[in-house]
Write a structure and sequence with these properties.
Length: 540
């Protein structure tokens, strides 16, 4: 990316899956840029830490069937490994600024890496799903400050004139990780064992922490004791956690026929209401600044970003699950099917970053949603005979949507905001987005299971001794050497595969409609025509 003053706040939102928040550095701290080898090594250290963090948001996606089978749970329960990380990550995002003020950016960043390493090791050693989810929660929580602080430290390493170049390098790192994640996760799962998707963080994280501390420890930001909104944080943890557990456990416990699910729903509703009242009242130190939603641009931009990301992330979760559980793909093959999603994104993002100030972000975002919709509708036409070429084409096309999705919507949400509110606005928008991604994964997998069960019931109605199709199929299976029981079992697997295919098609159709709807939502916004740009410092 060229060294120009293109809005780095937009570039900061490039990654598709990772937690991105903005941690404001101390206002009066402006260390001189790094020079020569120190700058290169510092950039590598920060990029490696970011890469490791982002990698863990996608590396487990293709490993869910293996993890689920190993710990003795269903694949729908196995998706908690993904959602627990995302929810904990989202909750920790609003605390980044406060922790930076209390601890210092360098100390907090280094500690986050080391704690992430410990949590990764614990994930790999977890003997059951409960402990694995617990350690993934810890891993997600300690990962919260890593990405925003890597941006902060990276910007401080470069002259202001090269901030665009710095953030372009950062954006490339965070785009490559989601591409590598599924392939690496699939290969490790198939050829070694799934715990190694977490163990690989240990040497990488230790090296990144050592290099970061060696280079940046003399550039520590000033610290001060500042209050934290403990009540708001507590309510936030309770309502988000209750909602996510309700969504994850709902299908297993038959939803509102379960007193536990009802309790979770009531708890989430009450705490969410109290959270809104508390944060909107006279609160000098809110955990999130909800008054930002009074701004039309912020509300429409964040709504489009979060709902769109939720639908996108839900698809990212169920496609590899469907490929492995219903289509017979290995984890490596499923990873290869998902990997090309980043190719066009990597090519498009730097170009868009340079030219976005001259474009209407609503037009760019509309193009992104239209591409997402086309991809969803293409997948809605899949059947159980679909070949790898037809599976991979929508994935490649989806990369163009990724490359044109995050930048304009972030720019739209932050348009017109004074510099002193950029950090709070960016942190809040990313909290909502990450939470929406976790909720989207839970809702989509639940919807897929429910629709598959419905289609299974309809299909089995026609599988009778009086059905000519059933008789012919049983005859073909018997001619192939199967006895009556084996033929019946094979027929049931065919029905189940068809039912899950139809259920997945329903999900793809629904997400396609959602993306079309979002095109109209973002046109509620009115872009800032003042020519003001988001300052890099304000963004961090």
């Amino acid at each position: 990316m060229a060294a120009n003053p293109s809005p780095p706040s937009a570039l900061a939102a490039v990654p598709a899956a990772p937690a991105i928040a903005q941690a404001p550095p101390a206002r009066n701290f402006a260390p001189p840029p790094l020079e020569g080898g120190a700058r290169i090594l510092g950039t590598i250290a920060l990029s490696v830490a970011t890469f490791m963090n982002v990698l863990d948001t996608s590396i487990a996606n293709v490993s869910i069937p293996a993890i689920s089978g190993d710990v003795g749970v269903s694949t729908s329960q196995g998706t908690w490994v993904i959602t627990s990380f995302a929810v904990a990550n989202a909750i920790s995002v609003p605390l980044t600024g406060w922790l930076t003020q209390r601890i210092g950016a360098v100390r907090l960043f280094t500690a986050s890496i080391l704690l992430f390493v410990v949590a990764s090791l614990a994930c790999g050693l977890a003997p059951n799903l409960g402990l694995l989810i617990l350690f993934r929660v810890i891993q997600g929580a300690v990962a919260g400050p890593m990405i925003p602080l890597s941006q902060t430290l990276l910007l401080a390493s470069y002259p202001k004139s090269k901030s665009g170049t710095a953030l372009g390098l950062w954006a490339m790192t965070t785009l490559v990780a989601p591409v590598v994640g599924p392939v690496l996760g699939g290969y490790i799962t198939d050829n070694i064992s799934w715990p190694w998707i977490f163990y690989i963080n240990v040497p990488v994280g230790i090296l990144a922490a050592y290099a970061s501390w060696a280079i940046y420890r003399t550039r520590e930001t000033p610290t001060r004791i500042s209050p934290v909104d403990g009540v708001g944080l507590g309510l936030l943890v309770i309502w988000v956690g209750s909602l996510q557990v309700m969504l994850d456990k709902g299908k297993e416990l038959d939803w509102f026929h379960s007193s536990f699910i009802v309790t979770l729903a009531v708890t989430a509703l009450i705490c969410f209401t109290l959270f809104l009242v508390w944060e909107l009242n006279d609160n000098r130190h809110p955990i999130v600044d909800l008054s930002l939603f009074k701004r039309r641009n912020f509300s429409s931009g964040v709504f489009g970003l979060s709902v769109g990301y939720g639908a996108f992330f839900g698809n990212v979760v169920i496609v590899p699950l469907w490929l492995q559980t219903q289509m017979g793909y290995t984890a490596t093959e499923a990873g290869l099917m998902m990997a090309p999603v980043g190719v066009l994104a990597i090519l498009i993002t730097p170009v868009l970053g340079r030219n976005l100030p001259r474009l209407d972000p609503r037009v760019v975002a509309s193009v992104a949603f239209a591409i997402f919709a086309v991809v969803s509708f293409m997948r809605a036409g899949f059947n159980t005979q679909v070949d790898p070429a037809h599976v991979i084409v929508p994935t490649i096309i989806q990369g163009a949507a990724m490359g044109t999705f995050f930048l304009p919507l972030t720019a739209l949400a932050l348009a017109g905001l004074p510099p002193e509110r950029i950090a709070a606005a960016s942190g809040l928008s990313n909290f909502v987005r990450i939470t929406a991604g976790a909720i989207g994964a839970s809702v989509v997998t639940t919807l897929w299971e429910n629709r598959s069960a419905m289609h299974h019931a309809y299909l089995t109605e026609s599988v009778t001794a009086y059905s000519q199709t059933t008789t012919d199929t049983m005859g073909v299976l018997a001619a192939g050497g199967m006895d009556q029981a084996q033929a019946a079992g094979s027929l049931e697997r065919m029905v189940d595969s068809q039912a899950h295919m139809l259920g997945a098609d329903d999900v793809f159709w629904l997400t396609g409609v959602i993306f079309v709807f979002l095109i109209f939502v973002i046109w509620i916004a009115k872009p800032d025509r003042s020519g003001a740009r988001v300052d890099a410092g304000g963004a961090h």
